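Aim 2 progress. For Peptidase S8, the working sequence is reproduced below.
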Amino acid sequence: MLPHISAGLRRSAAVAALGAAVALAVPAAPAAATAQTPAAAPAAVPAAAAAPAGTWAAGTRAYLVITAPGDTSAVRAAVTANGGTVFAHYDAIGVVVAHSTSTSFAATMRGVTGVQQVGATRTSDVPADAYAPAIPSAPAQSPTTLTESSRWDMTQIKADQAWAVTTGSSTVKVGVLDTGVDDLHQDIAPNFNAADSVSCAYGKPDTRPGSWRDVGTHGTHVAGTIAAAKNGKGVVGVAPGVRISSVRIAEPGTSLFYAENTICGFMWAGDRGFRVTNNSYYTDPWMFNCPDDPDQAAIIEGVRRAQAYAESKGSLQVAAAGNSNYDLANKTTDTTSPNDSTPVTRRITNACLDIPTELPGVVTVAAMGRGNVKASYSNFGQGVIDIAAPGGDGSYGVYSTLPGGRYGNMNGTSMASPHVAGVAALMVSVNPALTPADLRDRLAAQATDTACPSDSRCTGTTANNGFFGEGQTDALKAVSGGTTPPAPGRYFENLTDVAVPDNTTVESPITVTGLTGNAPSALKVGVDIKHTYRGDLVLSLVAPDGTVYPLEDFANNDSGDNVLKTYTVDASTETASGTWKLRVRDLATQDTGRVDAWNLTF
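Predicted structure tokens for this construct:
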């Protein structure tokens, strides 16, 4: 572990901070792996109501005081009456962030009527900076002469082919919950969303311009992997057309990610409409939080509520699995916690959680090296890992942006997670109606099955195992359902919802323009229908001249939900240009649905 790097970060180490003159094709050798245009943001409707700054005192500790969601005023009054101050409160989830110098504060508050849980979030004092936070300085920028070129990680997940379908929509906001982001970087600035960026260090939003800037290098590197602009310079992110928002949850000096910071970040993500967040860290100071410890139980509950709140607002959380080569499905010991004071060796069980990565609804990402191989450092675990993506290993690092206009390689599950976050952002760009649950299902369905190697620690099947989960993320299949990239100008889509009532036939049109001659003999028809009983459905494609091509008549006893398939139609006798229609017949009562989206690839 490099001494200035939080154990909570899900990366090994920066391989190099490469300047403008260093060629992309010559990556530096990595260090040893050790683990896992600014503008003022609107002040209206803050994610948390904050108390006056107050005065710092030695011995100040931070606590989560948890009560029923809604009005927390009674509990806040009890905090003040029992030797504490209210630093922030999140009434929507019933969480109060309190500070106190009293060593009996937690025990006293646990006896207060209406208080459900209380827990200290750290084993060290709250820094004085919490009461008058310094804004990170803007790094001097070094313009690059590097031009974009193919990178192994992008080709491995077919991101370069997915860009023929979409590079992402500027209406899609992705939150980078991390050490901050250099918003002035030449590859970040075109996609940076200052209005929705913030610092959540210490547990309440700081919307001052620049508060979101990087206090390290980690967050800027992650941001570049997700959405570095496709501008001919440096690198390209997985989703180079989406918008990046920085939510700095790391504290300066330590780069630690405490629970109150994470809670603030998730609440901000939900309130600001982030469709995806990336979380390449674990919540300090405990690598694993155990529910039989009252402090750690409160941390689990507070962060869980905040994540659930963000998801309820339409935000999918993607998180790194960690870099300790540890079996998360068979936990036995933790020797690294707490990492903000003196670590101790403790026995743990699977009830102890790595958060946020093991919280319900969070997509847990393992790291792969170049090729279909587990990265040597990546955590694993059957039933815990959801999906895998390139994180780098050995001499093949993930090359991305660094503060000051620079570029460099890093290895870690921190680098794998943003690949999946970028793929999720592309999915939402193609179909804005997708919910977090839809995204989880599609990420799993479109992943490329990856078999276990000859390693007894990898359990499960080729379709789902402890090293790779559902497999390696595939950006192309995720956005098109195909296995080959559609040629530019030959992909057409309708994202408008069409209701499918009982005993009714509906049609959704796509007008094809710019093509000459006939349609191909292998016309691809991608269908996304939400329906609670697909046995009711009959699907057809209607050509511009009215010819009907049957796609599927589902068996009457098929009780499955939804249709997410790509059909192949020989339409070689049809003129390509014109209005094509997807026809959906519902032949029964009780169950209804909608056409969510459909597409044609010529």
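The chain has ten helices and 25 strands. This observation will guide construct design in the next reporting period.
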